[in-house]
């Protein structure tokens, strides 16, 4: 049995002109100790999916359909009090911006101890001892000193390590990392991702990594979920998706990576923009940007098709695969 099962999840936002659907029929699972990635452009629904798992969708948003099963409990049906016992305790989240996540007027120790007190009854000395252990675990230099410092006294990389330490305080089973390296420079990004990977393996943590960076996903995760306009368009083993993307949108994301461009030439890009939630086209939402789109694509929502080890929501997957095989054969000859 999976540790987490998201089934047919739907999220709506009530606006003045009516409700818009931010997530449509999103389904995926997560096993104990497994690392999965959720990728897509800004506005694809990645963060909404992550926030839905912890029931952090605030008004005017709401979970309007589906199930989020964690150890057999539907998280979308729990009361606020029941959810508080799960957030930070069994499922923790690392948010995007370390500069904004920490409280600037509290020391690191006060913030970590407060988190422990919210879920357990123990003395301040015991809580501080656990906080110190977690700072050591995330390889903070001089952890005793850092405990009594304020966030403004720390670098961006140290702040993110402290946020990871806070996420680990109560030994959760799942970590959700929402763009955890967004505000950091490139070398620090690599350090933070290496640290997350080491911690998942040493602590047997399951990880949901939300990112737009396919390079990071390829190094860290075992399975990948590709989202577009609030819907999953492809999912499967990360290696298979990176090496042989099936959906035209996934192919576009991979072709847009800097290393795919000719040295000195222009970067590849997907033409057009993702549609707004108020104006998602009928049929396949990617059809206005897809060079392969047919009338069927523009009129009919594609169901999932098994292609290799992946599930792909594309009407043309058989034709595209056949065309690719012909191209490969021609190149071989």
From TrEMBL:
Instruction: Please list the GO terms describing molecular function.
Output: ATP binding; ATP hydrolysis activity
Give compartment(s).
Answer: Cell inner membrane
Where would I find the ABC transporter domain in this sequence? Answer: 6-254
The catalytic activity of this protein is classed by the Enzyme Commission as 7.4.2.9
CDD domains assigned? ABC_NikE_OppD_transporters (cd03257)
What this protein catalyses is:
a dipeptide(out) + ATP + H2O = a dipeptide(in) + ADP + phosphate + H(+)
Q: Which domain of life is it from?
A: Bacteria
**What UniProt keywords apply to this chain's record, in alphabetical order?**
ATP-binding, Cell membrane, Membrane, Nucleotide-binding, Transport
A biological process (GO) of this protein is: transmembrane transport
Does the keyword Oxidoreductase feature in the UniProt annotation?
A: no
Report the InterPro entries cross-referenced here.
AAA+_ATPase, ABC_Ni/Peptide_Import, ABC_transporter-like_ATP-bd, ABC_transporter-like_CS, Oligopep_ABC_C, P-loop_NTPase
Predominant location category: membrane
Q: Does the keyword Nucleotide-binding apply?
A: yes
Give GO cellular component annotations, separated by semicolons: plasma membrane
Family matches, as SMART domains = AAA
Q: Which family does it belong to?
A: Belongs to the ABC transporter superfamily.
Quote the protein name from its UniProt record. Answer: ABC-type dipeptide transporter
Q: Which organism is it from?
A: Alkalimarinus sediminis
